[in-house]
Structure formats: C-alpha cells, structure tokens
Amino acid sequence: MVATTAKGEARRTELQDAVIRVLESGGLGAVTHRAVAAEARVPLAAATYYFASIDDLLVSALLRVTEQQVALFAHLDCRSLTDTAIVLHGWVYGSRASAIAQYELLFLAMRRDSLREAADLWYRSLEGAIAPIVPSGRYARVAALAIDGLILRMLWRGEPASVGEVTAALRDILRSVHRSNSA
Amino acid sequence: MVATTAKGEARRTELQDAVIRVLESGGLGAVTHRAVAAEARVPLAAATYYFASIDDLLVSALLRVTEQQVALFAHLDCRSLTDTAIVLHGWVYGSRASAIAQYELLFLAMRRDSLREAADLWYRSLEGAIAPIVPSGRYARVAALAIDGLILRMLWRGEPASVGEVTAALRDILRSVHRSNSA
DNA sequence: CTCAGATCGGTACAAATGTACTAGAAAGTG
DNA sequence: CACTTTCTAGTACATTTGTACCGATCTGAG
After folding, report:
1. CA distances from B110 to A112, B94, B121 (A)
2. Given this model, what pLDDT does residue A4 score?
3. Res B2: pLDDT
4. Strand C nucleotides where any atom sits below 7 Å of a protein CB
C-alpha cells in the first residue's frame, strides 16, 4: 500500500501542496511529475511513487484544495455584509494566482466525472458560507448565482477592484433579492 | 509575411478551427502542433509555419471563437424569456464540449494579458445579448451577474438541465431584478 | 532482534514535443 | 516572360515527458 506511515503521509501532503504551487505559477500545463517533485524538494521517484499518473496528482490536489476551502468557509464570519466583502476581496485579490489555480482545478472537474463530487462539495460550501447574509426564500438561489458570477468577474476582469466596490456589488445583489422576497 | 494569399488565409482558418476541435475532445493539454495539424489534415510544418508557438495557436483560437460568439449573440432574438432559455439551453447542452472548450480558452485569458481584450469582448457581447430581456435600471447588473453564474452552474453541475428549469431560473432572476427596480 | 512490507533515490529508456532546416511548388508582380 | 516572395512538405534533432526498474534503507509488528 501507499502512504501508510506517518512520514509517507506527510510527504504525500507535501506533494499535494507542491502541485498547487506549480499550478499557481505555471498553470495546468506546468504540472508534471518532475516539476512537482522539484517544487516539493523530493526526488522524481517520490512523485511517481505516491501518484502514479498526472491525473492522480491533479485529482488529489483538487481534493486537498476543496478540503482547505471548505474549512476556510466553515470558519468564516459572514454575518455582516462588509465583512463578507472584505473576505471575498481578500480571497480573490490577496492571492489571485491561488484563486485562479483553484478554479482551474474545478474546471478539470467538468471533464472528469471522478472530480464531480469534489466540485459539488466546493460549490455547496460557498453557498453555506454566504447563507447567513442571504435571506432565505424563493429568490435566495438568485443571490447565490449572482455571487458566483461576481467572483468569476473579479477573477476574469479584475473588477470590482476595491473593497468598497465589492461591498456595493454585494449590497445590490442582496437588496434585489430581499425586496423580491418580501414582495 | 504569413497568410497573405487567399489560400494561406483559408488554411489559417482551418487550423484555428482544428484547435477548437482538439480542445473540445482532449482539453488544453491536447493542443499541440502535431495534434492540430492532424486534425486539420495538414502537415506538421503548416501548423508551425502559421503559428510559431503553442501560445499563438491558443490566442488565435480564442480570437476566432470570440468572433463567432459575438456574431452569434448579435443575431440572437432574446426578446422573449422562453426563447432566451431555449437558446441558452441549446448553447450549453447542445454542444457541451464546445461550451467548455470556450470557457477553457477564456480562462487562459486570466493568465495572459494579451487575451484580456478578447475576453472582455466576449463578456460584453453576452451582456448585449441578454440586454433586451433585462430591464434597465439600478439592478440590471445583478441580472447579468446571476445569468453568468447560471451559465457556469449549468456547465459545472449540469443543472438546471431541462429547458423548463432554465426558464424558471431565468424568470426568478428577472423577477427579482424587476421588482427591485420598480420598488 | 527478525523480517516482511513500505519507502527511498537513482537511473534508464521509449514516446512525444517544440523547433529548425532545406528544397521545391505556387503565386503574385514587374 | 523572369523573379521575388509566399507557401508547402518532408525530415531531423535536442529536450521534456511518463514510466519502469532495481538495489538500498527505513519502519513497524511479532
């Protein structure tokens, strides 16, 4: 079996993190056994030992990213709109390369059924995180869709750029949903 | 210079389309000079002659896709909500691989500044297409964001799946914006 | 301690890839 | 017509990649 000892498990995690760093700096094409091994400062054979194929490497990295993201979202304090905007802004622009890398992994999930579940988990954790500020009701799902769109637009076009603008965008989204629900 | 004759221009276009087909079937990693040349039924040297690097290949393909998409959106009849749902549903599920391929190209634009402009164009053409059904006003942008999110969710999770469900989702989005605008 | 299985690190090799080169065909231009 | 430029098509080569292999070392259970 693979990775049954404590040291083995640690190395496996090291390699998963290395995949993400490689992804951040060079994109999907840069993820090779050699690049990941070099990034993790381990010999090539270690990468091939723990992850037989490139696919294993990517799947494993997505699962780890999802895990981290779910944990992050779980401990998020999204009660106030401003706080949420700050978190959102920080997540996208604080480490844009990292955010893009995560979306690249999620895009992989579109093509591979084995990743579908992880993508779903990521998606639901985002919805759970924003749930406290989204008024429940018929149009709650609209708010989730709009916030998804907002994140994508921030990643894509770099706008809205400032925390203030993000706050304004969030306020518009929530207000539109709120008024419709109470109507 | 490259591609100054009619035949040369035709071959260039052939190759661009081949890039998209390769992208559809095999993803970003499958786009190589050889694969594209084989797909276009031209010798390897033709691919390297017209597109010196893989990057040129992808950039050029994105520009062509954008061009097609803008043309498609321009001739779209989005006056009725049901028609829009049918178009949206057909675009995503009619050729899901193609839709995913286009988004993969657009994701490339996140990393390369040279593609930013093309991505912006694509984005704006989508907004222009849905403009007729989105009531202008303060919250119009929210609808655009939500529809972006809706498209992404369809690509990602395959839901909403039926035309009826897409119609319902669109109706919820538009209703929420409309009521807020008139409030 | 003993030892079987897990892990390590190095090396080798076939396949695929980007890229360069050359000679010739075709096309446009005076 | 000549002749310059664009284009074609085949080939060759260095590099990078996935992958397999082997002996040495470490680890935990009995």
Report:
1. 22, 26, 14
2. 64
3. 60
4. 5-12, 16-22, 27-28
Map out the domains of chain B with their CATH numbers.
1-52 (1.10.10), 63-182 (1.10.357.10)
Q: What percent of chain B has pLDDT over 90?
A: 40
Which of A61-75, B91-105, B140-154 has the weakest average pLDDT?
A61-75
**Residues 160-179, chain A: which have Cβ within 8 Å of B?**
169, 172-173, 175-177, 179
For range A28-36, the mean pLDDT: 94
Instruction: Classify residue B31 as exposed, middle or buried by CB count within 10 Å of its CB (0-12, 13-18, 19+).
Output: buried
Rounded to a whole number of angstroms, the CA Rg of chain A reads 19
Please give the DSSP secondary-structure letter assigned to residue A29. G
Taking a C-beta distance cutoff of 8 angstroms, is the pair A173, A147 a contact?
Answer: yes
pLDDT number for residue A3: 53
Q: Does B95 touch chain A (CB under 8 A)?
A: no
DSSP-derived secondary structure letter, B134:
S
What six digits make up the tokens of B13? 């276009």
Tokens matching residue B150: 């809706």
Contact criterion met (CB < 8 Å) for A142 and B146: yes
Cα B80 to Cα B133: distance, rounded to the nearest angstrom: 7
- Interface check for A77 against chain B (CB to CB < 8 A): the answer is no
pLDDT at A23 over 60: yes
Most confident of A10-24, A105-119, B104-118, B132-146: A10-24
Q: Where would I find the H helices in A27-162?
A: 33-39, 44-50, 54-74, 81-94, 96-111, 116-130, 140-157
List the single protein residue with the shortest CA to C1' distance from D21: A45
Largest pairwise CA distance in chain A: 63
Name the most confidently modeled range: A91-105, A109-123, B31-45.
B31-45
pLDDT averaged over every residue in chain B = 87
Q: Which of A25, A65, A67, A31 is closest to A51 using CA atoms?
A: A31
User: From CA B157, how far away is CA A124, in angstroms rounded?
Assistant: 11
CA distance B97 to A56: 23
Amino acid letter, B23: L
